[in-house]
Design goal:
- The protein is α+β, with helices and mostly antiparallel strands.
- It has a single domain, classed as Nucleoside Triphosphate Pyrophosphohydrolase.
- The chain has helices at 41-53, 95-102, 125-137, and strands at residues 3-11, 14-22, 25-29, 31-34, 57-66, 74-82, 105-113, 144-145.
- Strands 1, 2, 3, 4, 5, 6, 7 and 8 form an eight-stranded mixed β-sheet that branches.
- A hairpin with a 2-residue loop joins β2 (14-22) and β3.
């Protein structure tokens, strides 16, 4: 089974999501992706956030682990802060930018109002529910398995 890392990034009253169009399906997910080779989830998190947004992680704390049946990924979801930044965009040298150019698997990072997050068509409803709860009551101090 593969591993993936995803970032919950909140700035003010907005949360960062990735808007996807993949194989005819349109949905939202968190920024992040699979580990490469011997990369740890933390290393993948830093790389993926940089590739998909241009932002650098300042701090990250594991808050959720989402397990899926094979061959899907085990998802490590981190609550993150980022270094000061300008606009967000998929970086030109990333795999996501390549897929965007093929117009077959579109990735578009965007900020959404936190109070609208619960109404998005999110890829994994149990994670969405956990994030909504975290936004309202605070995120867990220790990682929670979903």
């Amino acid at each position: 089974m593969g591993k993936a890392a995803r970032a919950i990034i909140i700035e003010g009253d907005k949360i960062l999501v990735m808007h996807r169009h993949k194989h005819g399906s349109e949905y939202f997910t968190l920024v992040g992706g699979r580990t490469n080779g011997e990369e740890t989830p933390e290393q993948a998190l830093v790389r993926e956030v940089r590739e998909e947004t241009g932002m650098d992680i300042a701090s990250a704390r594991l808050v959720f682990v989402e397990e899926h049946a094979a061959p899907s990924n085990e998802q490590y979801i981190f609550l993150c802060t980022v270094a000061p930044h300008q606009d967000i965009a998929v970086q030109d040298t990333s795999e996501e930018a390549f897929m965007n150019r093929l117009d077959a698997n579109i990735h578009k990072p965007l900020w959404v109002e936190a109070n609208a997050f619960a109404r998005l068509y999110f890829r994994t409803p149990q994670l969405q529910e956990a994030i909504v709860k975290g936004l309202k009551k605070g995120f867990p101090a220790e990682p929670v398995k979903l």
